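Anyone able to model this chain together with cobalt (II) ion?
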Amino acid sequence: MITYIDAKNSKRKVAGIIPLHDEAGFAGMRKAGQLCARALDLLYEEVRPGITTLELDRIAFEFAHDHGAVPATMFYRGYRHSICTSVNHVVCHGIPSEKPLREGDIVNIDITLVVDGWHGDSSRMYPVGEISRKAERLIEMTYEGLEVGIKAAKPGNTTGDIGAAIQTYVEKQRASVVRDFVGHGLGQRFHDEPNIMHFGTPGTGVELQEGMIFTIEPMVNLGREHVKILSDGWTAVTRDRTLSAQCEHSLGITKTGCEIFTGSPLGLFNPIAVR
Ligand code: MF3
Ligand code: CO
Ligand code: CO
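re: yes, here you go
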């Protein structure tokens, strides 16, 4: 069962109604989240110079199909693929294509799978062969940004505390946080309340409560934060063409902190830590 809190009537002002999930919801999210993690683990074996992102998309689709899951992005607002593949200066929503990956590229793969009606949503960075020290540093920074956000995800804190923690950390490294795309509530819907901004002011936004389920998915640029959307209507790139990275977990607020649903069973979530 899902109960809803009307956030407008809570002490803090917000946009809409935030579902609070019970143990059955957490169980559903665990299953969906773990299937996403296994798909991303499988793709770790496949990413190498010469492979196209369309081939990766096909592998992801087959994995989903074989496990009775549906990619949520398939036919979502006209999108036609199982994953987003965002290479180098692509910030997010990169569309799989026939273009082969090249040594030194960094690519984010983002997958959302629906299992028994529950949505798991996760993304990771994949280095293609040897990458530059600069790219490696960006990836490390992005993962650390997600980590400090997760540490702030606990009852009593607010959504603004998560955003502020991420922004403070990233800007201290003299990189920037993208403003145009945010984390989101999810569960039986792909995108729900609350919005999770990756920047902001401590103590503002919505107070976090046990049972809330959402993603944290910071996008970090080596240059300025500004993005533009290409004419395909999806691909978001950095305006200054500097490198961009992202990583994403789905998580649920517990009594004392949070539970991450999309952790890698093989310990492959952070590719830099693995090498
Ligand atoms: N998975 C993305 C997210 O984290 C959404 C992708 S929507 C798509 O919210 F249509 F671009 F695939
Ligand atoms: Co998401
Ligand atoms: Co995603």
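The first strand starts at residue 2 and ends at 6.
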